[in-house]
Amino acid sequence: MIIGHIDFLNVLPFSYGYAHAVQDLQIVRGVPTFLNAELKAGRIDLSNISSIEYARQSDELLILPKICVRADDDVTSIILVSRKPIENLRGDKIILTSKSATAQRLLKIILHESYDAAPEYVTRAVAVENPVDEDATAALLIGDDALQIYLHRPKNFYVYDVGKEWKKLTGRQMVYALWAVRKKIAAEEPALLQATYEKILRAFEFGIEHKADAINSVLSTKPFTFDELEKYLGGVIKWNLTAEALEALKIYYRKAAALKLIDAEPALEFANV
What we know:
Number of helices: 11
Largest sheet: 6 strands, mixed
Number of strands: 11
CATH class of the largest domain: Alpha Beta
Shape: globular
Distance between the termini: 15 Å
Strand content: 15-25%
CATH superfamily of the largest domain: Periplasmic binding protein-like II
CATH topology of the largest domain: D-Maltodextrin-Binding Protein, domain 2
Helix content: 40-55%
Strand order of the largest sheet: 2-1-3-10-4-11
Structural class: alpha/beta
CATH architecture of the largest domain: 3-Layer(aba) Sandwich
């Protein structure tokens, strides 16, 4: 089975477990939009994916239980960087990072419902060194780039945590990523799926047990301190897919469908593992 892996810091326990505890998985790494497309094309069989992508591919996918990427309030790694206060955004141009899927739609919901804004959205690459291009008012960043700006805020910009804005709007947490498997693979290879799922859980458990080692393993290549990542991993980011998280996810899908950001609110179907 070919496994996709969004290699952001928010899944560092999985990354560390894959490297040190479960080394016999065939893994393809990439940003969310890349792996979303690879799963749709059938070039990978199972992956952590943007939660919105499940809605877009729900006819072909099943959710793996127990695991997700979520945050109860502030997420710190999905941010809007703006030249003006968020309440003053109207028809401004906003750049959406090309790495994102869930966050793009989440921001559109928030700006529409909370601020009655109808910006011009443009999707393209966003650089952490110059987060807002000269032709734009604001930009959406995700992942490690967003976390870097959140922790080390650039001068003369407003920085908004999109997770916090969602909590203000709905009173709910947010599920940013799910693990999903193609229905065809689940039907044809149930034993292989079960074995693979168990390895993914084992990798995660190993990563959590050795979280300090996992954090230390990336410090030389990331612009963060140990304490910053310790707070982020497990303090901010959580990985258990709870009943409350699923209810929050349904609200997100409902709002996305109402704005025609997805075709319809999907039913949540789970793999039998």
